Amino acid sequence: MAQSHGFTEVDWLSRKNGAAHHTQEYPGPELVVRRGQAFTLVLELSRPLEDQETIIFRVETGNCLAHAPCWSTSRKICLTENTVTVSIASPPNAVIGRYLISTRVSSRRKQNDRKLGEFVLLFNPWCPEDDVFLDSEEERQEYVLNDSGIIFRGVEKHIRAQGWNYGQFEEDILNICLSILDRSPLHQNDPATDVSRRHDPIYVSRAISAMVNSNNDRGVVQGQWQGKYGGGTSPLHWSGSWVPALCWGGPCHTPCHRTLGWGGPCHLLGAAPASCFSVLRCLGIATRVVSNFNSAHDTDRNLSVDKYVDSFGRTLDDLSEDSMWNFHVWNESWFARQDLGPSYNGWQVLDATPQEESEGMGSAGRRSRQSLLPGVLPVNADYITWLWHEDESRERVYSDTKKIGRCISTKAVGSDSRVDITGLYKYPEGSWKERQVYRKAVRKLFSVESSGRRTRVRRGGGRGLWRDDLLEPATKPNITGKFKMLEPPKLGHDLSLALCLANLTSRAQRVRVNLSAATILYTRRPVAEVLHESHSVQLGPEEGRKAPAWGDLNRPTPYGAGSRAGLPSILCSFPGKKGVLGPAVVGVAVMVKVTVVNPLLERVEDCVLMVEGSGLLQGHLEPQERASVQFNITPSKSGPRQLQVDLVSPHFPDIKGFVVIHVATAK
């Protein structure tokens, strides 16, 4: 009787396949390859194959078997009489995920089955037949393989770069990304259908976008919208992606708590690997972060951001349901739109902010950026300020058609510079085309009844908004005013301002000036009033005059340091040669020096310096003291690597710095 056939060893050729498939950065022993491209295995046999024997390979993911001709194998090549090398190719539209591969050796008399092991199949932006194909190698390096980058934040006139570690190649992150798909309601409700649809980047991106928040599906990150962090971690202390992902990746899949902070959920969900951004990049879809400054949050969908104020200019929270955020972050992912047609291929907008639901899911996703070009919220709306009178009437006192959707930004390919892509989202502000699109949208929203009566959109508190309120320009004012900074602002000191008034008429006017100022959150919601004054000013015909005003920026607020206005974002610096005191080489310790400056005129207690999540400095800083700390790091990977530093203190919000270290390969 012939000897039973079997395999004594399988060589996955991980290094060779990893280099060919651009997956060598994924850690661990498991083979990771990309679809639409062949990979090679070497099988060691227990005995030579007989002439009538055949080997059948079986690959399956979930409960789905991948049948020929979808998958193919090349003719076997015998290196020795007991070794066979086989090349296995998946189709460019194969389902992505973890696969089990097994063999069946058949002859006339019997057959022998053997499980070889598991491998992971990803999307392939290098394959022209794959829907995620990206035709630029530089962009593939940037948007797929780069594991660190920049998120732009701040305000329109002071845009700042925040270094971030995306971490898609960190230990266990790939496994967690696949678990996110398996834990989604789509999979829990119908596993077979869900797995069978994972060939489609449109479907996968939507599932991931919904799962990054825990609003309704026990997702990765749980929102806290009140500015307090009880039971969770402040986003101000996050500089990388792998910590929240590993937090969720525990045995209970518990959401990581976070709150609004300076960037809110949009900032975190745009950058964490538990977000659609890094998860999709980890799964092989080119993805980038986009920041929109002066971002509209229009609660009643009337194409305007309506702010209601009292006679002192103080925002009336119970009436002002809309808001304009300093900035908002979303993601763009690159793939074809087989559902819409080739003109919509390219960058697709994915917004994982869990305040909104779309089709019953806590996300807004997969809309082609091309379809956004006419201009929609949050990038194109009118900003209107209404004066609310005691008799509950209102008066429009300010209207700005150019304020919303400014400096839409993303990181440049191959550098940390900022690229302005506003023109890809909307027509130039104030142009005839932009106003035409806006007016068309308003008329579509506010329909006119056949009787000729205007249609009114109801709002909370019994008020409403007529269509003509949006289409008609504001009345030209008789007096204008703007603030001018008399001295550069200093943290811990009063802010010295002057209100410059100008009479635009040819007659003298007496003006009562009510001044107020408050610290605000990044949503521009007021927190604490720091200025409240009233003056009477006489202005002659076409006369201009300055009225001084002062505000206390050192006053504590109910939300602590996180709500203070005017604080600098980066106090951590790297002196010398980018803070690295020597050459950086893989496997060799190098000294890094970080300098921290206390700008306050008071002692600052309980400071902790965090580097990649590790606490390195504890103690205090004397008034205006400069302190330095040195420590060793041992690089494990070559190439440009980003080191983030975070100073944690109850006196400072969001004190971060970063440096790019170029690590050489060990000789």
TrEMBL record:
Ca(2+) binds at N380, D382, E429, E434. Pfam families: Transglut_C, Transglut_core, Transglut_N. One of its GO terms (molecular function) is metal ion binding. Residues 268-354 form the Transglutaminase-like domain. The keyword Metal-binding applies. Keywords: Calcium, Metal-binding. GO terms for cellular component: cytoplasm. Binds 1 Ca(2+) ion per subunit. The keyword Transit peptide does not apply. It comes from the Eukaryota. Its cofactor is Ca(2+). The active site is at C266, H328, D351. SMART domains: TGc (SM00460). Belongs to the transglutaminase superfamily. Transglutaminase family. PANTHER family: PROTEIN-GLUTAMINE GAMMA-GLUTAMYLTRANSFERASE (PTHR11590), PROTEIN-GLUTAMINE GAMMA-GLUTAMYLTRANSFERASE 6 (PTHR11590:SF50). This is Transglutaminase 6. The gene is TGM6.
